[in-house]
Amino acid sequence: MNVSADNIPHPVIVDVNSNEYHVNWTAPKRPNGVVLFYDFRIRHNQNEEKQHCILGHLPTTFVEKGAAPGNYTIRIQAITPAGSGEWSTQTSFDINEQTITAETSNAVVIGVGCAAAVILLLIAAFLYVSHQRRKAALNVPTVLYASDNPDYLDSSDVYVPDEWEVPRDKIELLRELGKGSFGMVFEGIAHKLIEVEPKLHVAVKTVNDNASMRERVNFLQEASIMKAFDSYHIVRLLGIVSQGQPTLVVMELMERGDLKGFLRSRRPASSNSMEPPNLDEILQMAAEIADGMSYLAARKFVHRDLAARNCMVAADFTVKIGDFGMTRDVYDTDYYRQGGKGLLPVRWMAPESLYDGLFTTSSDVWSYGIVLWEITTLAAQPYPGKSNEDVLSFVIDGGILEQPDDCPDRLYNMMCNCWKTEPKARPSFLEIVQFLENDVSETFEEVSYYHEMKRRLLQLTNVSYGADQGSNEQARRFFPRGEEETPAHGVAGSNNWMTEADRNIGGCQVDICQGGETSGCLGNNNDGQEIRYVQFPMK
User: Which of 299, 476, 473, 501 shows the shortest CA–CA distance to 511?
Assistant: First the structure.
């Protein structure tokens, strides 16, 4: 991995015109993978810095209209699957109040002139239409013009085939599995898609035949998000068929469907012969979901819609994070339209998301707590008996879900820690996995992102799993057992409910920071040397 490959190569350029400014920058020439998005920060005078996220496939430009007078500073960094590039050199510029006032006066005069011109154009258009109708009545032939791009898509919005493109004749559809937000989902066979498996059973998502060009592009762009992910507990993208119709997205087949339907099929009253999951199964599911989310958090990806309906269950009962918004229509009653906003999964949202529209890894942790509640109740609707409007008020006012019947205190304590009002007080997903480390199967250790990072971290610090200094029992504890536990002191970035002993992994004092990052975290190897971890090593 080239550590400088993700840096913005040239200074940011700003063009100011009255109270409007245009920002342009150069994309990294050869980033580590693809640029997922740009982290764009703007500060006006001495006010708090504002953040904007611009998707990596969009043009490298930002426009702000109606900007207030004053001094502005701007900096940008690229985010790729390997992490963050360095911040660009800070660019400063001013917007002059006198210029805005003068141009506003000119705008009034110009506006009056434009209004008169529009009236004249309308009169001319009326006369032209009348003339055309008279010609049609006389059967006078006219020329018809057809747009080859009726949706007027910008060239940057058009999907460009890449190494993920799969020939259509390699995909064979077998049977319908269900309906997604863009179209149908089928079980199929991919022929010779992977050399070791000549016939691989897959899930194939399609787009409706009557979908517009923009809807087709959105379908492909949502699928393209998954190109950057490669983790066992994330549903895997296998390929895309964008040439010809219909457009197909080929995914790893999860034979038992989504977690919500799977849990409901385990209810005693269900016709399914399987019994409800026991505590061991529940903790295994919880660890698998947390592991998938820790992988996303390490890549600075905020899911925003973590729920049982968006987790999938494989034939061997492994639970994986689903396909990020591509199946929303299946459970449309789980979403709520607030005012003029889009559909919101309010029953899974953190208070800061409901109140301020703020989505972070910490708000994903809140949603994870709701998923745990769903698992223990076999997919009951969160906040039963409350309308969506009532849930909004209840959560913002500090309300949380009650402990389900037959739910162990340990599991409910996990939920409550995920529902801390202060986002920074919530555990990270890596911490949750470590808390569950003794409750998972042996296979989990072989495939999990958590154990992969743990092995790499121990290699970096020359510490083995069997080190005598490694107090693994102490490393298990993440959630408070009582007031007698001592808050951590002197550990960079520590949470006040973790002891220093809790951070001991295999003899190395490590602070696993919120959101799956280790930026700014300190540790010591067996030789007593201080180590500063900028970031977990990425693939």
Answer: 501
CB-CB contact of 290 with 436 (8 Å): yes
Is residue 39 part of the annotated active site? The answer reads no
Give the predicted TM-score (pTM) of the model: 0.59
Please give the structure tokens belonging to residue 325.
């918004």
Helix, coil or strand: residue 331: helix
pLDDT band at 295 (very low <50, low <70, confident <90, very high): very high
Instruction: Compute the distance between CA of residue 411 and CA of residue 357 in angstroms, rounded to an integer.
Output: 28
Question: What's the fold here for domain 13-95?
Answer: Immunoglobulin-like (2.60.40)
User: How big is the chain by its Cα radius of gyration, in Å?
Assistant: 27
Catalytic residue, candidates 305, 334, 364, 502? 305
Q: What is the DSSP letter of 21?
A: E
* Opening angle at CA 65, ends 59 and 67, nearest 5: 125
Given a contact cutoff of 8 angstroms between Cβ atoms, the answer to whether 90 and 45 are in contact is no
Asked whether 531 and 460 are in contact (CB, 8 A), the reply is yes
DSSP-derived secondary structure for 99-114:
HHHHHHHHHHHHHHHH
Instruction: Tell me which residue of 43, 38, 44 sits closest to 25, measured CA to CA.
Output: 38
Express each pLDDT in 222-244 by its tens digit: 788 888 899 999 999 999 998 88
**Given 2.60.40.10, 3.30.300.30, 1.10.1140.10, 3.30.200.20, which CATH number is that of 161-252?**
3.30.200.20
